[in-house]
## 1
Amino acid sequence: MILRLYLTLGLVLLGGTAWFIVVKQPPTVQGVPAVPAIVRLQEEGVIPKGDIPENEDIEHDVFVTPPEDEKRLEEAEAAMGSMPGMNMGATMDGGMQMDKTESAKAEAPDGSAMNMKMDEGSSSAAAGMKMEGETASAPAGGMAMPPVMDEEEAARAMAQQMAGLVIAPDGPFDREITLSMSEWTFSPTDIAVKEGERIRFTVRNDGKLLHEFMFMTMPQMQAITYRARRADWSLFEHEALYEKSLLLPGQEISFVATITKSGSWMFMCMLPYHMQMGMMGQLATPGAAMKM
Amino acid sequence: MENALGASGYTATMLAIVFIVLGLGIAALFAALFLPARWKLKYRMEFVFVVLLVGLVWYADRESTRIFTAYQGEIRKAGVISSAEAAEPGRNFDHVIKVIAFQWGFAFINDEGRISRNAEIVEPGAKVLFRIFGNDVIHGLNIPAVGITAEYEPGVERDLWIRAPEKPGKYLIQCLNYCGVGHAQMKAWLVVREKEA
Amino acid sequence: MASPQDMERMGGIPHWEPENIIGRMDLGTLLFSHDYRHVAIKGMLTSLVMLGLGGLMALLFRTELAVPDIQFFDARPYMSLMTLHGMFMVFGFIIPLVISIMYYMMPKILKTGRLIWAKGAQWSWWTLMVAAAALVISRPDFTWTFYPPMSLRVGGPLVWLGYLAVLLVAISEFLAGAVLFANGWAAIGKWGWSKLPLMGWAALAEGLLLMGSTPMLGLVAIYMLTDWAGLTAVYDAGRGGSTMTFMFMFWFYGHPAVYLPLVPAIGILYTLLPRFLGRPIWSYWSGVVAFALLTVLSFVVYPHHFQPAPTISTPLERAAQILTLAIFIPSTLHVFNWIATLWYDEIPSSARRAVPFRFIVAAIFFLMVGGVTAYVNGQIATDSDFVHNTYFVPAHFHAMFVGFMANMAMAGLYYLYPYMTGRIYSQALGNTHFWFWQIGIFGKVSMMYWLGYAYFPRWVVDYLPLPQWALPQLILTLSAYLIGLGFIVFIYNFIRSASRGASVTGDPWALSRDAATGAEVPAE
């Protein structure tokens, strides 16, 4: 009788605990230090205060983009409409008579910017395949080889144009928004914008940890979710419209964003688990806001 | 295996001792179980055995201390590293890199005062001192290719130095102490690359 | 060697009249009886449930780790599975199980006829039950060593139940330590210091380890609670506390903690080996010295768990290294003693047939496998290379906890089975369990050592798809499944044989060899 009792209780306990942890998953909670060590170290002068210049030598080829991302980006864009940032059913932009898949390949920011201008159709396929950062070799025939930096910036500029969100370090603006990041959210999270508007953003790290700031289109986000929790996440590049890879606590950056199309664009911190815990928001023109 | 601790033969020797002692032990167990011949050990055999063990312990302590003292000595040669002064590169190390370990990534600040996330570049064979500061919780830092690892508490500086691998390439740096949900993803690249002229 | 004095030192024969004690227990007896056999059986059965629970947690996260990439679990639930696995296995399964086996055996071996202060054993069990409930409800993800400040900032609003569970475990273990010490002490009065059976020495050693270390664990748990509540900032570095304080305090318990299941398992081995062989242990005094040395040293070696710290190369670190290497010696004395015992005369065929004897041999084998690596674990130089916080450490402690202690616990359970149920288990199923386990344990331990050498990190839900990591992980997962299967076979055998097994009368472990003449007596 005792044995049967133990067996039953045992099975109930085993099943119950497994269900309680695996099915009814507990939420991820992560507190932060009251005073992060970095603030103290800055006060002591060990770590420089203010903006620390970025190491430009860390080029594109240290963090490469996996080929799988490219494939998923195409799929995401095909599913959502070829021009991210465009409303469904709206007319194609720029009169380009391309079908959806072609345009998806063409916009891939891998240094194929030159190709795009020259030849909308066939060659972009080859360019699109070459997602690895070895962009220093290879651009379209007849072109002088541009320095890698410019190529990357040019690619990003192209992507921003296509997406409808153009970002410049400074310039005239219509309104100002302060975006505050902390653990684990942005404030504000949803920002309504109008087509044609220019907004000067000040993004400030009001948190206790280091963070990142990026703008991405929804398809760009969907392209990388498959590996967002994988161990190799930090070792690869994730394509974005705009990225500031490190913001120390207290640090702020500012830029002017021009909305050139209607649509929606996500902003987030994509350090491991930061986004999953809530550090994400969106800019959207009326009617274009996505469910996040 | 060549490693940061400068101990290529040492690991092999210690592992060899481990395997030999294990082999002898298993052989003795099997002999006791399956050999028809029986052996009544004299008590003094155990004293001999203990003396041998004490010898192995003494040897291990001596070797390990020699290696680690030499390793720490290199850091001390760079001078007193107080929180207000930086060790000057060139004094004993080619580079002195500050590492900020946070939840969940690494920030590297190099000699030129430039910051990078999850990657740092060094020349092949360079002697590099990492001054590691944890920002929030206990983290670890491990570079498998050079065989060094350490864990460090938040706010307390931890110094680790390596001789960068000779072969250019990207080498893994990983956090080796549970630091929260992002621990498995807390990885970085040690990029070994010739300096551009 | 087999003098009458040596035989006397082996203590009373652990033999009772086989009867169906388990079958005749009802809920009241189970929960409230102070009869040592009821108390012990309750402890054993509960520990087996905890083994099942801890094992299920392991199989779940092992399934996730079988191949790279995330398949089933996010990091948070994965770490809850791992935390519960560690805590249930250490606090709920192995320590209570080997102590319960000692509760069962001591009255006969030490000839006290009863378990002194059985009430303390009762309270110990009830406290452990509350701790287990608190742990499951809070499902913490802070690992079984819950290092702050991380452990103070994760887990959600109910994480304090996790700290409370640790406090209750400390109280439960302290009570058990008091019971064991009381029994060992009473036995000294009865036998004298120079003739106290080795199980009595084990009881004294274990009692001192428990009572010496658990108050510190209790204090740690209390500080975790007050830090978490914001009342203190002892460990929280963000508010001025020090994690090094935690390290010193926690590991002061933490190192003796790993000997808590080891010492009773060794005591059980010293008791069962003479029983199966029909002759005394080769050297009584070697066993005594080894117990004493281990007990004393275990309180001073703990810095090796957080070596090398920024205070490296100071005399303290070096002393910790030397003492850590030295503590490897008492355990080798035990192994030397057992092999010498096996070797000095014939091994009766009754022993070779017995399932518990097999488990004893396997335990000795794995104690060697796990023990020799202590040689590289203890050296700061190798520790700073491929040992610290890689899979090398879990390889070592799984070889010990599972390879030695769990195997010895099984030996004890199979040994006591006829005495508790009046029947004999199925020999075939027992052997199946045995082989599944040894193959599984060997696969698990060897793969873990290899992964550690290849710098596989601890506490990760996912890993880079490197071939030297992926293939061993897959084999490790399969080995874990084999161990799980062995456990199921064991449970089935245990339950089924209690009602269907052949009845046993007389001595189920009677020697096939006549003790006086040495002639083989045919098995009945």
Note: Chain C touches chain A through 51 residues (CB under 8 Å).
## 2
Amino acid sequence: MKQFLVVWCLGAIACLAHGGEAQPMAQDPQVEARLVVIAEELRCLVCQNESLASSHAELAEDLRREVRKLIRDNKTDAEIKTYLVDRYGDFVLYKPPLKPLTWPLWFGPFLLLGLAVYGLWRYLRLRKQGTSPRLDAQERAQAEQLLKD
Amino acid sequence: MIPELGQFALVLSAVIALLLGTVPLMGTLRHQVVWQSLARPAALLQFVLVAFAFACLASSFLSNDFSVKYVAEHSNTLLPKPYQFAAVWGGHEGSLLLWMLMLSGWTAAVAIFSASLPLAMVARVLSVLGLVSVGFLMFILTTSNPFDRLFPMPADGRDLNPLLQDPGLVIHPPMLYMGYVGMSVAFAFAIAALLSGRLDAAWARWSRPWTVIAWAFLTFGIGLGSWWAYYELGWGGWWFWDPVENASLMPWLVGTALIHSLMVTEKRGSFKAWTVLLAIAAFSLSLLGTFLVRSGVLTSVHAFAADPSRGIFILVFLAVVVGASLTLFAWRAPAVTLGGSMGLVSRESFLLLNSVLLVVATGAVLLGTLYPLIIDALNLGKLSVGPPYFNLVFAPLMVPLLFVLVPGTVAHWREARMSEVFWRLRFVGAGAVLLALVLPFALGSWSAGTMLGIFLGMWVALGSLQHVVERLRKPGRIGGSFWGMHMAHFGMSVLVLGITGVKSYEVERDVRMALGDTVTIAPYTFRLAGVEDVMGPNYKALQAKVEVLKNDQVIEVLRPQKRRYFSTAMPMTEAAIDSGLLRDLYVSLGDPVAGDTPSWSMRVYYKPFVPWLWAGVLIMVFGGVLAALDRRYRRNTNQQSVRTAGEALSGAA
Amino acid sequence: MKKFLLPLVLFAALVVFLGVGLMRDPHEIPSPLVGKPAPDFSLPTLSGDKPFSPADMLGQVWVFNVWATWCVACREEHPLLVQFSKNHKVPIVGLSYKEIQAGDQATGALSEEAKLLLARQRSQKFLQKAGDPYKLSVLDLDGRVGIDYGVYGVPETYIIDKQGIIRYKRVGPVTPEVLIDTILPLIQQLDTPV
């Protein structure tokens, strides 16, 4: 009997001492994964320098909760973003939507690159002619003689 | 008494700066050598006065003089001494004084280390710096005086923002400002050259070491800021494309273009107007950055408390300085001679491509940063431009830049052949491609972006390596310039590989842990061994003890904290990091979780190759320093001294 | 010569934009809901009798004010609202927004009914002491109605017209200037029979 009790106690202690595999904070990791991807492209409206994914503000928690609900309702990324833009405006999107208002923003850099490379090519073609005349062997010898003096 | 002395010193230095900004410059116009020779002593005196003022402010902090408003707002009796000192630049007014200290320091340095330059040139350069100083000193004295008094004097200060109570604050702003302000030297040289009408290879040679040193400081400062954000903010991010971060990146990009452009002007006398424009742009971007951070036009986590009157002053100052410079440029630049010819494929053309790509990248960052403001100013609404935009636009611009870097160092001056260049690089190319194909499989997963990043990083690294090996085989002394260049390029490749690695392979686990629970990110296991309360000098914290196991052996114990500072009751997360050569293990303690057993939310990160980011930056900085200290800049030949004396006698400019 | 002037011209344009930008507030977000129908909801009121929804207010111009007892800025505007309610017929409906805060450890374990009761108690106590400008106040405990209205900071105030369309949104406390310059004229304009 005593032996049984000892084993039982040891067994109980062993069970208590062993920690489990930590559970993810999120209820549903799949939903959470989608949430993170979407929320990283959204702006927290309270602390306006953080993304919705990383902000600890209460409104951010609320909005994340809303987005989770929308994800579970099988809404697409676009629908979720529209939901938020309807309420908070384009400001909430970290990735500016592509529309006429943002064409200069999205196409500007590449346009600039194109123009610059073209300008560069034109300039190099111009400079290829060169401003310094090439010397032939005799003229070179003359020049060196002059420099020595 | 001491604050008043400090203020008086600032007023005096403003007067000296005004003299420095006008008399020597007029001396060059009127060929008065005596007026010109006033420049050096004035520069040194200005530095002494500003340094004294700075010392007065520091002394007020260290002696807990809360009758000074700025001290009361940013310090506290319980604040540890090193932070009491660093708190001098913890707020707007003091950070401006730090800026001014740096500016007067650089001015004095130019005064001291310019013995081989003609006096008239020195006079112009120091005058320009003096004029800029006048602007800053007037700004400080009229809108941002750190010595304002506070009556009645509070018993204790408000304390330094807990986010700033960190070694990062002690070093990041000074290094960053050294870089920002250092760009003013290249700027002053450019303006001086435009004023004198003499833009030649000699001017480029003088400007270059100053620019490289400033660039090295700026690189270091930006890297420090990134590292600090990484370990301080608690979620392992290191770059957010925040407006203030962008404000520091833009001068860096243009500064890099400037260094490479100066190289061409020095060697072949070409690109003079372009180089001058870059020099003006680099410092203008520094000033623009100052404006963006302090005026309140943009939302940023870094922004100082905004005040419209300050914004207006800086904007006017910016408009005057840059406007005058660009006007001078438009007037004088057309007369500048063209310099040597160059082929369509040549080292010059590669370097010009470098300039173009960097300037376009700067333009993209500027556009993204300012676009919300422009749209708002036009009453077209409010939108945000964040990391998704910058990542999508910036990365594609960096790809060609990194690619042409290697042929650029190999191509001959004046005339080169593409086929020959790439034949020379055949092993480098093959090696890079091979590694790009093989390594992702060794590291776990494959993606096009990962391959591209590895290819570019290896392309640059192997290219530098090959070049060094080839050069070592040849006889002759190798100068600091050569080592510096390859070191800097190599540092860049390490940075690129680090970014590719961490973005491709990092793992984050957001879990709840009770005592004894574990979370595994192969091959590491993290176990929560304990949670206890600890006391700090001015805070109370909840500290977790997390054991890190590999192969069932405890290799490290991490202690993340959640702190509550007495002064602000603002909770702060202090992440715990185990840094290795190839990876960081990063643990962040969250809030307690409601439930039967006490548990806490924890974030555990496995960040491979993140240490390479900081290593890459350090290598680049080291490369810059090596390049700047090349002996040929410090050569002081007899011929030059004779010429200086001759010029002094005749008073010619 | 002309191409060398380009940097100066571009810079001048930049300065103009920055100058205008100085006069703007980058934090303020204009509401996309202005001009759209007020989002529908049905929430319990402070007094406890039947729930309220915006449709109940059709046919009159009304003010919708978002507040909470923990909100410091709300206290700034509260006396002004009280006075306004005494001097004008326009009804003010209050939205008690997240009265029980999520981060509050003490109340975290309470049931939903208990939270509602506590919120009612707190709000009523506050209104008794500070004055009650509201025709009625609804309780938005979890903030979902707030999200529908694009609330991101408290206090916020909306003006809704007779057809139930949101005509104006004010973020931050109502100041005397805003009241006199914007809110009152708009209400008058909306109130005049068509």
Note: Chain C touches chain B at residues 1, 4-5, 7-8, 11-12, 14-15, 17-24, 26-30, 108-109 (CB under 8 Å).
## 3
Amino acid sequence: MGIADGKGVLRKIAFQLGDTFFRFAVNPDNMVYANPHRTTAVKTKSRIIIEDFQEDIPTVTISGTTGFNPTGVASDRGIAKIREMKNFLAKYASMGGNGNKSSADFYFHDFTNMEHYVVHLSPEGVNYTQDANSPLTYRYDIKFIILRKAGEMDPDDMASPEIGNRFPTLPNGSAVVGNNGVGSGVQDGSGNTSDDTPYDPSSGNDSIYNKDQGSNYVPNTSGTAVNPQVPSSNAHSLGQTGLGYALGYYLRNNGGGR
Amino acid sequence: MKYATDLIRLISNVPVLIDGTVPLNQVEDDPFVSILYTPTYSLSTVARLTQNLLNNGKIEVAQETLDETTLVYKAFNSNLASAFPSMYTLLRVVALESFSLLYMIDNDPVQLQYVSKKDILRTRENLNYLADFFGTQSDYHHFIQTMRDMNISLGYLQNQIEVIMSERGVN
């Protein structure tokens, strides 16, 4: 049974799924918290190079027996307790599937160390063992992956709203030539800022096309119309360069081609 | 001539069956249905030829950073591959088709005899389908501009294959 002083009983750990608890009648024999670290140590000629990627997946492993008849209460008997544990874990395991874990959190309470975690069954899962050396008891061995502390929020529930339009169709004032964002609100002598000037469609403002995305494709810079239907070298070279730049076949910084 | 690593990474290993169709994972949820465009999950002859070159390591790569406006950059800097795998596959098909066309024009114009106007029209239809889909997802709006540019460019090329061949001295 749990560690008892005759009055109270110290129960070290418990599982919780929703409002349902699984309490141990006998504390586990063994409990291991593992916190591996994502470090790569590379041995070079002159020194050791460390590459650090912070924490790996922490785990907690518990193992022990449910005892034979630890408290004298029928429901605390070893066989009843192991059945209860099997049902409890099987119920949780069946709630996931199709790539998703259960939406209900599984809590691992470690009362003595005052640590409480949201956990999930690790790939190794649970082992239940019966052994001829101790025919009346059952052993269990459970490995959990620690997802987060119980008090922390589920990352799926956190929102990171994006306000505004990241890819505006029309130019914003900051990208106009000669007004590179800094001081874009500065007023001139008549109290106007450079942003005040409305776009005049008749002015032939060629920077309106492909604004803020870099000028990706200019069909024809010479001013003469090219008819793509008519066979001409002009037409296919426009198509070739346009397609090459849009795809990444040509590099923009050295004028195409390498 | 060398090509950017990312570009080659995107177009390499596009899964293809022996008849040229690109297999899809059928488990995926409802596919996007465009009112105007129907996608074709298949590769043209010239794309298959380019795949052979890629598989045999005949195409050289260079470690170059691509411009943010390019399709390749956008494909690798979005979650399209994990969120919409079939769309991502189609995007790779389109990229491979476009690359094949440009590669053959530059390096082996004789192979252009296998390019038909229908192949280009099919790629354009796929591009339009993708652009239509991207229009429904605000995260992918920035793709559309590149899609449109590619569509226009392919439009310029589709009637010019014979001109290119005769210019390159291939009859």
Note: Residues 85-107 of chain B form the longest helix (23 residues).
## 4
Amino acid sequence: MALPDALFYLFAFLTLLFGALVVANPFSRNPVTSAMFLVLTICAMAGLFVLLNAFFLAAVQILVYAGAVMVLFLFVIMLLDLKEEQRRKINLFGIVTGTGAVLGLGFLLTRTIWGGDLNQSANPRVIGDTKALGLELFTKGQFLLPFEIVSVLLLVAMVGVILLSKKELK
Amino acid sequence: MEPTLSPAGIAALTILLLPLAAAAVIAFCTQRDGERSANLSIGAIALSFILSLGLFFFTGDKAQEITFNWLSVGDLKVSFGLLLDPLSKLMLLVVTGVGLMIHIYSRGYLHGDRSFSRYFASLSLFTFSMLGIVLANNLFMMFVFWELVGVSSYLLIGFWFEKNSAADAAKKAFLTNRVGDFGFILGIILTWVALGSVNFAELASALDGKAFPFASLTEPLGKIAGGTHWWVVHPNVLATLVGLLLFMGAMGKSAQFPLHVWLPDAMEGPTPVSALIHAATMVAAGVFMLCRIFFILDIPGSHALEIIAWIGGFTALLAALMALQQNDIKRILAYSTLSQLGYMVMAVGLHAPGPAMFHLTTHAAFKALLFLGAGSVIYACHHEQNIWKMGGLREAMPTTWRTFQWGTLALCGVWPFAGFFSKDAILAAALEHQNIPLFVLGVFIAGLTTFYMSRLVLVAFCGNARSEEASHAHESPNVMIWPLKILAVPTLLAGAWGIDAYIGKAFPGGHQPHNEGFWQNLFSPFNHNILAAAFGLLAVVAGYQLARTLYVNAASDPLPDKIGVLAKLARDRFYFDELYEWFISVTQETLAKVADWFDRWVIAGLLVRGTHGTTELFGRALRLVQTGSLQTYAFLFAAGVVLVLAWQLLQTHAH
Amino acid sequence: MNVGLEHYLTVSAMLFCLGLLGVILRRNVLVIYMSLELMLNAANLALVAFSRFNENLTGQMMVFFVITVAAAEVAVGLALIVALYRKRQSAHVEDLTSLKL
């Protein structure tokens, strides 16, 4: 087996494993555990991005997602000082139907993917290095305006967060 | 169509409208003044009578018609028209002549009554309606006036409406009539559908001599029902059906079995009303109508006439049996009217409308005489009507006695009184038609008639007074006596005036009697059919002898002891009233119960509460979806996505 | 076996289903939110895979923007959760049912 393929299988396995552990981990019911495993999932995904020749995005994934978003998550968990989740009554009906729906979805998607006719080019050129990305973003594509708007969006988000977390003035 | 204003036409229109004008004037202007109202009413009918005489003697025998176009809707053209032929001219004389006598008589009988004006207004209205029936030239117009007569008779029978029995009797008469009218209107509609017209002249020419006129009927009826096969009925059946439906109108009006129950109860009205309505005119309207539409009943292949003959005969028998045991003088006369009507209907059924009209004419005269005489007796005995409380009136009221005796002789059919000739004509028709059972029946009923009339006369007039009032009775005032004397004349002589010859001209075909002059006419029945005359007279003699042995100087009725339960049956009118009452109450209750069930369970239950319940059920079911829990919503979202994707992807995959 | 587009897409699908499972089954609000992020990541992976195998840079552009917007969204969402926690004193989803009929 060629190295890239082996690496793919490794990273894919890791992604799925850590993803599963985010959702249902047997270690503890503490949300911090789930957050940790999410970080690991993101890192594994960054590896997959590298394999797909999207280097810039892999870096951004780790920097922004793992570095900022997950940290934010952990801040909030600490802030709220959440204890372990109390055990409440298990809704068996809900679990069964939920799992059934999700399995159905998975089955459908897999069947579609492996059903052939995905309209992909034969022997595609490998593109996606950072220089091409930068050119695409700033000059060649139509992405300059969205780029600027996204910055405004971030500003708006900031203002919103401040407003939402303000305590009532006595 | 321009109305042709010939003198005859104007006269006919005047005859018709004069009583209506009198009724209107009385109703609106002179209600408080009884005398003036009476004079108006009597004057109107007197004028009509004179004009009728003029029409009778001075116009030819051909039929004349005056029409005004009244209503035109699509194919239906209803006109208001007057038909003057021998039939209607004779009937005009009967109605206005006898009516005039009764108007004058009423002036005396109802003297001092509280509602004098109302009585005369109703009487004029009745006269107008009756004249409308006589003069009508098409079935629709006849039906309109038919109903008017019903209303007028309701007003007159229930004249003393403060008495419960009178109000009930009026209702009974009207409702029973209505049942007959239902059949009548069905018959009219069927006639119009089949033959395209309701005008008598047009109908007569359409049916003239054709063997199966209804062979073309199945076509129009088939078109109505969309041409389906089940509506194709045999022409004979259709002809019979039309005839019988039209006969139902006569059944109601002329009180034939089974709609005979109203006539005896209608005696609750004042006696002159009984004379007018139930002897001379209204009940005769049914027979008149049958003669008018005789050509419809006579269609070759139709069995209507046979059925009609037997119904008439049966009614006559039933009524005669019931009359045997009645003790109220007016009731006896009422049942005898029923019986004679049965005779007339039987005559029509024997293909002899001429003799039927002849008997109608003579019967009008002598029955009115009998009723007015009974009224005189009742008046003299201070409104006592039970014959067992009378007696000895022969010496006390000689004129009443003499005229009543003549009326009885005419009714029983004794030569040379008028009744003999008309009854003989009917019996002769039965023999000529080779209908021996009906002949025997007719003879038997003649015997019964003599029996119960002799009973009446022997008990009420002969012997000694049986009560206080009877012993103090004296002759009635002149205004009541003179009509009796005047009516006695046709009672004696009408048989030989050639009425049968005159009326025979209206019914071409069949035996045509000839008017040979007064003295020859007196003996013509013996020349024409000696058997009928002989048997008739034999029956009279037998009946009288039997009555004499039982009732001369009898203190009370000996018959119930001799024949036991049959007498009770006769006295209780064979329990027909009870039967009808039970039947109506049962149907009424069942219908009411069904309607109640339907209203309670289907409309209120299923539709109203059901809609409410279903909506509520749906609401409750759908509420369970709103759990408020985000996870439920997320799950439902995912499930929905799965379903839609499944449907889409698997579909395209299948391609 | 040569790794092709289908493999990447399968991984993406699996990850998406895992995220969905978490959203439906877990009771803690924050864990639900994290599963939501997992779903977003799965979408990103699919986009990049398509971009790579179809010679189209638009996919990577989309991912760029998705990550940015996801960051903003997480910030606002967490602020909301904090506010909610302050009101209800609980981060359990069964206590947040005031929309129930």
Note: Chain B has 29 helices and two strands.
